[in-house]
Prior knowledge:
Layout: E1 4-8, H1 15-27, E2 31-36, E3 42-48, E4 57-64, E5 69-70, E6 81-84, H2 89-93, H3 97-108, E7 113-116, H4 120-125, E8 134-135, H5 142-147, E9 151-152, E10 157-160, E11 163-166, H6 172-184
Parallel strand pairs: 1-2, 1-6, 2-5, 6-7, 7-11, 8-9
Antiparallel strand pairs: 3-4, 10-11
Amino acid sequence: MTKKVLIVAGDAVEAQELFYPYWRLKEEGFEVHVAAPSKKTLMTVVHDFEPGWETYTEKPGYRFGWVDKEFKEVNPEEYDGLVIPGGRAPEYIRLDPNLERIVKHFMEAKKPIAAICHGPLLLTGYKLISPGMKMTSYVAVSPDVKAHGAEYLDQEVVVHENLVTARAWPDLPAWMREFIKMLKS
């Protein structure tokens, strides 16, 4: 039986952090669905690290036209894993109560979750991070992670129980490698 993975996203999702896991997981043979606040073509963004800037820059990215479901239509029990890309999307999609229900299911059921960059904002926003957890994220999210008692590690990928976290798009290969390993175990 083919395992199913859910990716949650919204406008201003980081392009590489959505497209890479979408195609990589399909390549590995998983059934992949994408859910968003509404079933529409998502407007992605490209974050880059440029000389002279103390933070990342943001530019329009490719459009993503493969949203399968709205958050309210998702039955999380049907899925074996969850991917939470970064970008600015987590800042606003976490306001959707249907998304909270989905993410909480994965944490409570201890199903594999992959969160990258600003993706851990869903976990902090829903109070799903507990003291003693080890994780990483984009450095600007580290205060949120630490405020919930987690140990922040500045490394390309951190695996803690059912959670696989990474800092940003340069860490995509290590992030997906660990998540796929977890899904296959």
